[in-house]
Design goal:
One of its GO terms (molecular function) is 2 iron, 2 sulfur cluster binding. It holds the Pfam family Fer2_3. Helices cover 9% and strands 35% of the residues. It has 1 helix and 7 strands. The chain is globular and about 40 Å long. The N terminus is likely disordered.
C-alpha cells in the first residue's frame, strides 16, 4: 500500500463520527445498469474525498474503480468527481481538495458520462 495510507493492515486512528458514502458503481463489461453502493468509513483526521476513496479501497472493497493517484495540490484533476455533501447541491470537484467533516453523508459519482468503470472516466 501507499505510504499515504500507512502500514499495510494498520488502520489510521478514528477521530470522529463515521462518514457514510454512496458511490456510483458500474462495470459495463458485467453490469446491465449503474447502481449506488453504500459504505460506512471511520473518520480520520484531515480526511478528503480522495482519502475516503483510498480508505474504502484499502479496507473495505478492492473492486472499487477510481484513479488512485494524485498530485496532492489540486492541479492534475485526475481525482475529479461529482460530489454531493449532506444533501447539498451536486458539484464537480477535485477530490483531493475537498475536506470532509466527521459524520458527513456524501454521494460520489463520475464527473462525466464517459464511464470506464465506477468513477473512472475517459478524459
Amino acid at each position: 500500500m501507499s505510504h499515504i495510507l500507512g502500514e499495510a493492515g494498520a488502520h489510521p486512528e478514528e477521530t470522529g463520527e463515521p462518514i457514510t458514502a454512496d458511490i456510483y458503481r458500474f462495470d459495463p463489461s458485467i453490469d446491465a445498469k449503474p447502481r449506488m453502493e453504500r459504505y460506512t468509513v471511520p473518520y480520520c483526521n484531515r480526511m478528503s474525498v480522495f482519502t475516503l476513496l483510498r480508505e474504502i479501497y484499502a479496507y473495505q472493497d478492492q473492486t472499487l474503480g477510481f484513479r488512485n493517484q494524485q498530485c496532492g495540490r489540486g492541479i492534475c484533476a485526475t481525482c475529479r468527481v461529482r460530489l454531493q455533501v449532506d444533501g447539498g447541491k451536486e458539484r464537480s470537484v477535485k477530490g483531493c481538495t475537498i475536506p470532509l467533516e466527521p459524520g458527513s453523508h456524501v454521494v460520489i459519482k463520475p464527473h462525466s458520462d464517459n464511464v470506464i468503470r465506477d468513477i473512472v472516466v475517459a478524459f
